[in-house]
Amino acid sequence: MLEGAELYFNADHGYLEGLVRGCKAGLLTQRDYINLVQCETLEDLKIHLQTTDYGNFLANQTNPLTVSIIDTEMRKKLCREFEYFRNHSLEPLSTFFTYMTCSYMIDNVILLMNGALQKKSVKEILVKCHPLGRFTEMEAVNIAETPSDLFNAILVETPLAPFFQDCMSENTLDELNIEILRNKLYKSYIEAFYKFCKNHGDVTAEIMCPILEFEADRRAFIITLNSFGTELSKEDRETLYPTCGKLYPEGLRLLAQAEDFEQMKRVADHGVYKALFEAVGDGSGGKTLEDVFYEREVQMNVLAFNRQFHYGVFYAYTKLKEQEIRNVVWIAECISQRHRTKINSYIPIL
Amino acid sequence: MGSMFRSEEVALVQLFLPTAAAYACVSQLGELGLVEFRDLNASVSAFQRRFVVDVRRCEELEKTFAFLQEEVRQAGLTLPLPEGALPAPLPRDLLHIQEETDRLEQELRDVRGNRQALRAQLHQLQLHSAVLGQGHGPSLAASHTDGPLERTPLLQSPGGPHQDLRVNFVAGAVEPHKAAALERLLWRACHGFLIASFRDVEQQLEGPVTGEPATWVTFLISYWGEQIGQKIRKITDCFHCHVFPFVEQEEARRAALQQLQQQSQELQEVLGETEHFLSQVLARVQRLLPPWQVQIRKMKAVYLALNQCSVSTTHKCLIAEAWCATRDLPTLQQALQGSSCSLSLAGRGWRVRASLKAPAISLVCLSACRVPQSEAGVSAVVHRIPCRDMPPTLIRTNRFTASFQGIVDAYGVGRYQEVNPAPYTIITFPFLFAVMFGDVGHGLLMFLFALAMVLAENRPAVKTAQNEIWRTFFEGRYLLLLMGLFSVYTGFIYNECFSCATAVFPSGWSVAAMANQSGWSDAFLAQQPLLSLDPNVTGVFLGPYPFGIDPVWSLAVNHLSFLNSFKMKMSVILGVTHMTFGVVLGVFNHMHFGQWHRLLLETLPELVFLLGLFGYLVFLVAYKWLRVTAASAASAPSILIHFINMFLFSSSPTNRPLFSGQEVVQPTLVVLALAMVPVLLLGTPLFLHREHRRCHSRRRQQPDKDTAGLLDLPDTSLASQGSDEEKAGCPGDQAEAEFVLSEVFMHQAIHTIEFCLGCISNTASYLRLWALSLAHAQLSQVLWAMVMRAGLSLGGEMGVAAVVLVPVFAAFAVMTVAILLVMEGLSAFLHALRLHWVEFQNKFYSGTGYKLSPFTFAVEGE
Description:
The structure holds two protein chains of two kinds.
Chain A: H1 5-25, H2 30-37, H3 42-50, H4 67-87, H5 93-117, H6 122-126, H7 147-154, H8 175-200, H9 202-227, H10 234-240, H11 250-257, H12 261-268, H13 274-279, H14 289-304, H15 312-336
Helix pairs in contact in A: 1-15, 4-15, 5-8, 8-9, 9-14, 10-11, 14-15
Chain B: H1 2-5, E1 10-18, H2 19-32, E2 35-38, H3 52-74, H4 91-133, H5 136-156, E3 168-174, H6 176-190, E4 194-200, E5 205-206, E6 213-214, E7 217-223, H7 226-238, E8 242-244, H8 250-306, E9 310-311, E10 317-325, H9 329-345, H10 359-375, E11 381-385, H11 402-411, H12 422-436, H13 440-455, H14 460-463, H15 468-475, H16 477-494, H17 511-518, H18 522-527, H19 559-593, H20 596-627, H21 639-648, H22 662-701, H23 703-712, H24 721-737, H25 741-765, H26 768-792, H27 798-840
Antiparallel strand pairs in B: 1-10, 1-11, 2-10, 3-7, 3-8, 4-7, 5-6, 9-10
């Protein structure tokens, strides 16, 4: 790709970038959160949200308000915005958007397969699927019995197809295999996305690569953490790590050998992740590792807005908006369950 | 007009509204639109306020209204505008409205749901019949004939156990855009164990939800085996296909088809009935909804206003703070009294108490309120309270003054009680515009256009026109009227009508006299292209033209240089006069706000500076016009040189003095003007500093007395006139306590520099009057010469000329309107605007106030 995005970026993507920056200005501020936390009921929450960019998004709800309604409606709003961006985008931005949806598609496929395994009805699970990762053939996922079946019959036409190269096997789909499938898919997805951004070059690469590197490393840490005490072998575990992060290759090898949290922490000791692990509180009081990672992600995404002429803003906006939805849902949950002590542990967006 | 001069007195009043009467009172106030409520709960978020439940109820209702309105709109109907007076409903009426609305909504939802269900059913039937009847008839026939052929090898290969295996069918319909994907997925998933045929439905079917027609695709899948069948069913489910039972025998199918058609006919009848009922419900909505919408909107506004009130400690009444013009206070009291009448039925009364700065009004208030107070126990009170915040500005306008006030407000809403430039703008604005737009013809056209608008202003069609550009012109119709009128006047002064001079009076110059005196022969006349008239020859110049420029100048080649000299000097004279007037207006500000020191320390130096330098220039111009005659024109002194020399304190020997004593007067004026600069720069700050010090020392001497005054402050409830005065004195002390010398110095320095440099640059700025009037005259002359005169001199024969003149005149007319009237008019308007905003108003007008925006139910623009 040519360098010097300043010269031609706006011709194709200027409108959308302006739009996304405007949308970013509509994110809830610290002040809004302070007001939201004070709410007594979900109705109060709704009234306050009406004064923000969310506007009357709950106005057409006739049934009593629940947390899941708020969640769905917020997601719908995000989805509408995303669809708008996507429908107005040109290449290669539209490919970028496709990559962005892939992660949600993977989640949805896995969710549906798990549901099929537990003999739940498709409709029940469809509600839980993320709207950004919807695709037509999605509901037919449960007819597949092996990964290759899944690939051949259903996913071959979707953007997920290229990520399947590593996961073609004739294993039956049980719970563990599905989880492994998810992680393998995610690994190849994130590596492909990373490669795409790297090849695109310019500011996009400068912004997106660190974000994706962080994402890859985060997954590596989380996989390690979740695999403690399961039957997953260390060799298998290593194959699941995305290799585009900062931990690759030495860190990942060490991580594969890790047997408990302390060893994992030692792996992180040398790199940029030391500070993050130090921020993790122990036991009851402090933050969880997940929260610390989320905070770091928010921080990186906010910083993405400091540069102009790149695609990272779209990614960052979507992620920030997701975090915002998580925050509001958290607050709403705390309110509806009258569990106010933890209401403040949302992750503020700067 | 008295209220035009400066904004009206506005008082901060405290309304004590008994809880039961608060709603009625505020709703009455909303109808009147007198007061602007102040938010006393600014720190409380929206959902923690007192009446949030009521607001929410109104919002619920509005939500239902929106639903009803949307339904009406979808049915292709419009809501009529509500008529008549619709007061905010009483809370008990709200229940009634709520009930009615809920019932309507329920009915509408039911009917709509029914219709939806019926439509869906009908859709299903239609699809079914389409699947059965159309499309697969031939293919089925084909498959029947092919069937044995296809079946034989397949049946043979699996052999014995599958003897009874037969072909099964899945038939259904799918949305067109999914058909291709479905076909592919079927193929991939079932590896060709099936035969699928897809076919478009011939006629378009209306979708049950959207009502939009779409071409559906029917399909027929033939397969073997249960496994495949299950898979196919799953896949068709995933694509949301409609799957129908498919009988193999053709007769049975035909019978089913007939039955289906019958069913769908019956359904259609039922659907028609439902539609009819639906239209009845909608008609009811149409009748009831608009008044309700207005009423509920008012109710919500009232509750929002009430949300801004704070609650008294006893919870018996609400306390509201509001700005209200003192002139409206009696009306306010009356209004509250009116609402209290209804209250007295409920055994309550109200009381008005006012006090403080305006004793006269407080007396009125007291006398007005005593009576009801004696009647009832609980009281509603109007209470005037002192306030440190700057009150809002209220200037009442009528349809004539509104546009001029608009010009001023566009720059900045005046500070409270500041001198309002609008009344002067009524004359100066059209005049300065006309100086730049001087042409009798153009002015007349503009005047007639404005006059037409003024005469038609009461016509409803004109009033309600929505076109934004039209509305802009219409709002400024009186402004346009005056601008046109003044342009006619200046047009006569410039003696220009569509750039042609008119000879209303006989010219003051006589060519005949000149010819006779100097004995111009025919040969001489033939040789000379230019002849000059000498005013010194007797009989040539008979005296000045009675009004405006002599028409003979339009023939002269030095027409332009003559006009330039005239217009330039006129611009300077007008500019200096306008600016001086602005400085003088500042006097009224200082007098009104009691800042007498500023009269001496600011206005006087400013006047001396302005008049000493530029006033003198104006004097020189006028003096030269009056004193230098045609005879002495050759040796006339140059004003320009004199004016430059004045600043250089020198004199040039070649330039004769204008009047005796000029050598003394000029340096004196310059020295005087320059001496005013330090006065202006240092006067006010030093004076304020001294005042501050004196005040400070006095306070140190008598600290005990001051604390006594402060102790008096808390018991405001029974505050006497005396303590009020002390209280009124308090803000002044506070202001002096915040006195920072350097800030005042800085401010004054900026003001001084701005004024002194401004005098020079602003005077130069007024030269735009000359430039624009010149441009306008030249442009109209060009248009006349290039279009009209060219057209007039074209045709030799009568007929040709007549035919040619039609398009020529059309072009002339269009260009006159488009370029000279609209474009030039806009540019002259813009420059006049600038002259008012920058050159005139910065001499006295700060424009840092804010408008009184009363709480009113009146709709904008009505």
